[in-house]
Amino acid sequence: MNKLKRTTIVAAGIGVALTMIGCGTARGEELTKPEVNWEAPLIDGVSQPSVAAAQSLVRFKVVAPAFGTPALIQVDDPARMPESQRTVAFVFHTADGTVVVEESAQGGWTVARLKERANTPIVQAASSSAPSGVAVRPFRMVPARQTEALLGNSGSLGIMWIEDGTLFQMFGPSVTPAQLQSLVVKL
Amino acid sequence: MKLQRRRVLTLLASFGTLLGSGLALSSTALATDYCGGSEAGIWLYNGNFNSIGTEAQVLAPNHSLVSCGGFGETADSVNTVGILLTTDARNWVEVGYKKYLSCSIGCSQNYTVFGEYGFNGSAGGPYYYSNVTAGTVPEFKTVIVNGTYNWSIYWDPNGGYNFTFLATYNNLCCQNGYAYGEASRSGKSGTDIIDHHYTLQYKNTSQVWGLYTQLLCWNDTDADYQWAHISSSEFRVEAGSRYC
Asked: Would you call A161 exposed, middle or buried from its count of C-beta atoms within 10 A (0-12, 13-18, 19+)?
């Protein structure tokens, strides 16, 4: 094989390798669920005209968040969801971005369970460099409103706490954990 | 020669049946790329939030995969069953199979059982288990461990209700939810999500198993595929542009 042909073949090989390095992004490590619909977060949600209307469909005391007028109030479809398990969801467009506030009955949630979740690692996607996956702790406990809350390491993972028999959750696509902690104080 | 031709035709007919009517695809049907972190899929659920388990037989087609380029998993097609534990879709548990391309210098095809869960939007997994054989009809199940917040997943390689335990995912949010079936994909145009879910069942809080009594569309983001209602407990995914 002459030098020119060898050079050509090597160059072609490098070209193929560079093509494969490309800009493609692996999906396998990402969520396989549809993204949260930030503007209407409950998949079976029924829009409510007021907090009072939402209150009529649930047993726990609904708190109207002091974040201005909500863009939407939803309650899980009463035709499909038992009253004791329904969630009320508020959607707000704040200076920190879209924020969803969810309220539901405390149910089986306790501070102890929140702490257990914070202390339980989640093993995420295996890869060639980490064949057994990577163990992460996306949540931690933080003080909030005279109790403790479970705070995620991104705004989409949200903040979660229990108050007067109600489970509160707050999350958003672009809000930061620090901003969520500020909003919790203002609730 | 005549006998050979008949055997070939029979084999092709069986193959066509296995892969479903969605194989009758025009070149214009598979027009959309789902790369750069995007994915498309169809999710259907049973509308009964008292589901504490679900199972179904799920056809394992020989999915076509076209790489997005780059390294890692560069195209995949996923078919699963699961429980949506909260209606904001941030908590779930599921099991099924994934056929995917794994690329480094070259690309290899993998067809694997996997499981995954979500807690407040943070995903655990995917965790990979056994290999799947294209053309079979595996069965998958997930069910709560009674009295706990732990969910176990199982499979049977060829839909015979002889389940093999795969794993238990601990300390999830909830003890019941909506049972669902899913077909989804990522990859360049030509990656398919042909699917057939049979005998979709759920276990209710009274510990009774039964067939889904309805199929509701939770979400549909695929521009090239649509779902077909066969019965309240059976659906197919085939080429088409209708959403939900």
From this structure: buried
B13's CB contacts (< 8 A; 6+ apart) are none
pLDDT at B30 (0 to 100) = 54
Q: DSSP labels for A20-60? A: HHSS----TTS--SPPP-TTS--TTEEE-SSHHHHHTT-SS
Residue B219, token pair as written in the block: 């979400």
What would you measure as the largest C-alpha separation in chain A, in angstroms?
Answer: 85
Asked if A93 contacts A71 with a C-beta cutoff of 8 angstroms, the reply is: yes
- Cβ atoms of residues A105 and A126 within 8 Å: no
Q: How far is the C-alpha of B112 from the C-alpha of B97, rounded, in Å? A: 5
Contact B148, B117 (CB under 8 A): no
For an interface test with A, which of B81, B110, B122 has the most A Cβ atoms less than 10 Å from its Cβ?
A: B122
Q: Which among A28, A167, A129 is positioned nearest to B65, based on CA atoms? A: A28
- The 10s digit of each residue's pLDDT in B96-149 is 999 999 998 899 999 999 999 999 999 999 999 999 999 999 999 999 999 999
Q: Which of A43, A85, A90, A168 to mutate to test the interface with B (most CBs of B within 10 A)?
A: A43
Q: How far is CA B29 from the centre of its chain?
A: 21
Query: B57: exposed, middle or buried (C-beta count within 10 Å: 0-12, 13-18, 19+)?
Result: buried
- Total-model pTM: 0.86
Percent pLDDT > 90 in chain B is 80
